[in-house]
Amino acid sequence: MRVSTLKIGQILINSGDITEEQLEEALQKQKTSKKRVADILIEDEIVTEQQVCKALEKQLYIPYIDLDSVKLDEELSGILPEEMAQSKMVLPIEKEGRFLTVAVSDPLDYQGLKDISIATKMKVKPVIAEPSKITAKLREMYAAQKAIDDAKEFLSSQQTKSKAQIEAEEAAANDASANDQPIIRFVNNMIEEAIFSKVSDIHIEPMEKCLRIRFRIDGKLQNYMETSPELIPSVTSRIKFIGNMNIAEKRIPQDGRINYKVAGKEVDFRISVLPSIFGEKIVMRITTSLGMELKKENIGFLPENLEKFNHLIKSNRGIILVTGATGSGKSTTLYTALREVMSEDINIITVEDPVEMIVPGITQVQTNEKAGLTFAAALRSILRQDPDIIMIGEIRDGETAGIASAAAITGHLVLSTLHTYDAPSSVARLIDMGIEPYMVSSALLGIIAQRLVQRLCSNCKEAYEPDENERKALGIPMDEKITLYRKCGCEKCNKKGYKGRIAVHEVMLLTTTIKRAITSGMGTEELRDLAIKEGMIPMKENIRRDVLAGTTSYEIFVETTISND
After folding, report:
1. What are the Cα distances from residue 210, in Å, to 143, 206, 222, 230, 280?
2. Given CA atoms 301, 217, 179, 270 in this order, what sign does their dihedral have?
3. Contact 223, 146 (CB under 8 A)
4. Are the CB atoms for 362 and 348 separated by under 8 Å?
C-alpha cells in the first residue's frame, strides 16, 4: 500500500483544519489516554469525522466516500454476516465480479480486511467513511432483514404447533426472559429501528390480509413493513405484556407504557390499544425527545421570541399557556421550560394524563379518572403540597381552568397547554370555559402558540430566484436580489426533500394594554391586531423568515398559512 510520509496531524495542519497548538495539546493528551490523535481531536470537537477521513485519504491514498449519497444494496447483507460487519465496523457497498468494495473507518485494520476476504471469498477494496455513518447504514441494511427473518422463523415454528400450544404461548406473551424467541426479536427490532430512525409514533395495524406496520417520521406516516396476518395475535400479546396491560382482554381499549433501553439511552413509550374488526390496533408513541436536548435554544424560537420566553419563565406567578394542535410539540416546550427553571430551592409538581416524560427531581402525578383523580381533584391536592410551580398537562374544562387561575393569582407559576391554533383565540377559549374576562387578564402572563413545519434537507435543497408571485406573497421587493430554496430529494432524506421539522411560534405577552382589552371584552380579531401592535410576531411572519433563511420552502409557507389567512 502506498502511504504518504506525512502524519495525519501534519496533514490536518496543512489543510488548515487545526493549528500547531491544537495538535500539540492532542499529543500531550495522547500520552495519558493512549487514544489516536485523530480520535482525540474529534472528541474535543476540533475537527469532524469527515475532516479526519479526508486527511486519511491524503495519507493512505484510499478514496473517501460520502455514505449519505450511497444507495444500499440489501442483497449484500447476505454476503457479509451482520456480526462480522458490526465487529469490524465494515459496510459492504458494492459487488463487482470477485471484488467487494467495503466502507471502513479504520483502513489500517489489515487483519480485519483479511478476515472479511476469507469469509466472503472475495477480494476486498476498502474506501474510507465516517464511523457514525457506517453505524447508521449498518442498522439500515440489517434491521429490516432481521425483522423479516424473525417473522419467517416465527411463522415456520407456528406451523408445527397445535392450536392449544399457540394460544398458551400468546397468553404467556413469550416470557420477557426468553429473548431468543423470534416474536420477541421481531418486536425488539421494530422498536429499535423506530428509535434509531427518530420516529414519533409506531402504528401496528391489523388488516384483513396482512399486518401493516408504519412509522410516523417528520409528521408523515411511512411504511416500515407488511407481513403475515398470522403474526397479529402474538405481536399484540407481546406488546400488551411489556406494556403491563391485560393480555386476555381484547374487547375494550387499553393504555400502557414501557421504558426501553437501547445504546445506553432509556426511551419511554406510551401505548394505546384499540379493538378493530381484524384485531387490536396499537399505537406506540415515543415520548422521549430523540436527537434533541431539552434546551430553550433548541426549540426554534426567533431571537425576539426567545427573549419573551425567558421573560415568561422568570416570573414567579401567573399562567403560561402553550397552544397548538395535537403533535405540535407543546409538551416538549413545557418540559423544556420546566428544565430551565428547576432548582433545589423550588418545589415543582405536575399533573398529567398521561405522564409523557419522566423528569428526575420533580413530582409528577398521573390522573386516574376511574379512581376519581381528575385534573381538578389533583390540582386541589397539589395546592396543599406547598408548590412553587405547577404544570398541568392540559386545561380541558372550566373547573380545571378556574383552579389554575386561582392558583396563579395566589402566587404560583402555572404552566399548561390548550388546544387552539393561535395565541389570541386562547383568551376566548378560556372565557368560553366560564372564566371571567377580568380573571383571565389577571391570571395570564403570556401565550405561546406553536406548530411544526418540515425542514428542507440541507444535503440536497436547491437554490433558485423567486418569481413575481412568490415575491409578492413573501413581501420581497421586485428589485431585491435574494435566493430561496426548494425541495429536491436525495438518499439522506429518503427522496422526500425534507428532513426533520422546526417549530414556528407566536408569543403574546399580556401587556397592560392587552389586559385592559380583555377585561373590556375585545373580540379575537381585534385582540390579534392589538397584540401585533404590542410586539407579537405572527406565526405567518415566523414561517416567512424561515423561508428567507432557507430553512423551509415557499411551498410549506403556502401550505401552512393559506388556510389561516
Report:
1. 20, 7, 16, 8, 13
2. positive
3. no
4. yes
User: In 10 A of CB 560, how many CB atoms?
Assistant: 18
Local structure of 545: helix, strand or coil: helix
What single letter denotes the amino acid at residue 6? Answer: L
Q: Is 12 exposed, middle or buried (0-12, 13-18, 19+ CB in 10 A)?
A: buried
Length of the chain: 565
Q: Please state the rounded mean pLDDT for residues 162-190.
A: 60
* Secondary structure E strands in 277-327: 279-286, 318-323
Strand partners, 211: 206, 227
* Average pLDDT of the segment spanning 178-199: 81
Which bin fits 343, alpha (ψ -120 to 50), beta or left (φ > 0)?
A: beta
Neighbours of 44 (CB within 10 A): 12
pLDDT in tens, 454-463: 999 988 899 9
The packing angle between helices 524-533 and 512-519, to 10°, is 170
Taking alpha carbons only, the member of 252, 253, 247 closest to residue 234 is: 247
**Residue 138: predicted pLDDT:** 82
Strands 444-456 and 318-323, bridge-based pairing: parallel
Residue 234 to residue 204: CA distance in whole angstroms = 12
Q: What is the helix (H) or strand (E) element at residue 217, kind and residue range?
A: strand 211-217
State the Cα angle at 330 between 329 and 333, rounded to 5°: 90
φ and ψ of 390, to 5 deg: -120, 130
Instruction: Tell me how far apart the alpha carbons of residues 547 and 454 are, in angstroms, rounded to a whole number.
Output: 11
What gap in Å lies between CA 467 and CA 246, rounded to an integer? 59
The C-alpha cell of 361 is what? 427531581
Task: Please tell me the pTM assigned to this model.
Answer: 0.69
pLDDT-derived band at 148, boundaries 50, 70, 90: low
pLDDT digits (tens, 9 = 90+) for 514-529: 999 999 999 999 999 9
Given a contact cutoff of 8 angstroms between Cβ atoms, the answer to whether 260 and 266 are in contact is: yes
Among 515, 521, 364, 366, smallest CA distance to 432 is for 521
Q: How confident is the model at residue 544 (pLDDT cuts 50, 70, 90)?
A: very high
pLDDT top residue among 182 and 488: 488
C-alpha cell at 208: 384483513
DSSP H or E run through 214: strand 211-217
CA 269 – CA 82 distance, rounded (Å): 28
Contact 269, 287 (CB under 8 A): yes
Share of the chain above pLDDT 70, in %: 90
Nearest to 500 by CA among 537, 549, 551, 448: 551
**Residue 317, helix vs strand vs coil:** coil
What pLDDT was estimated at residue 293?
Answer: 57
Residues 402-436 pLDDT 10s: 999 999 999 999 999 998 989 999 999 999 999 99
308 burial type by CB count under 10 A (0-12 exposed, 13-18 middle, 19+ buried):
buried
- CB of 175 closer than 8 Å to CB of 241: no
Give the whole-number percent of the chain exceeding pLDDT 90.
41
